[in-house]
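Thread: quick sanity check before group meeting

JM: Hey all, I'm pulling together slides for Thursday and realized we never actually wrote out the predicted structure for the chain we discussed last week. Dropping the sequence here so it's in one place. If anyone has concerns about the input, flag it before I start.
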Amino acid sequence: MNLPNKLTISRFILTIAFLGIMVSKVPFHQTIALILFVAGGVSDFLDGYIARREKLITNFGILMDPLADKIMVCSAFITFVGLQLMPAWMVVIVVARELAITGLRLLAVSKQVVLAAERYGKHKTISQIVAIIAILLGISYPQWGPLGSSLFGFKIFGTPWLEWFTAIAVWLAVGLTFVSGWLYLWRNRALYLNDM
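JM (edit): ok, ran it. Output follows.
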């Protein structure tokens, strides 16, 4: 197994650890969850970068890398609904998009077609990771004392700047999720229209 594929598998493990920590009551669990999620995001960047640079692209990586991203991101967003950090309707858009694209990929595989990730999908994933990290920072930095408050708590128009940034990041992530999903389904419509 090559290094990019090992990094992809590590993302599944980091996701499980992230979920366990998020719902636990251990001290600084939000900060630990933030660190685990950032590590997952870094592994996402590294596996694609190394695979392209070293020409280690495999069918396993083409299929499992996006799946690992989807599970990591959807797990975080669903957890946020349970913790009342994000509205459920936004998460429904994210999860529905990811399930639809996964279904399309499975249909493509059944027809011996491998669908690689597209540019819009990569932008969508980055925007989702940024939004999740912003939410995690928002619940973590109060644990960091004066340093956290000085970095993330200073106010713009009476509200900490991180709250403004998080709101924008979440809306952008949900918007890109919807648009990228629609474009992906439209561009590959021949795969499913022929079976209808």
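AS: nice. Strands lie at 155-156, 159-160. The chain has eight helices and two strands.
JM: adding both to the slides.
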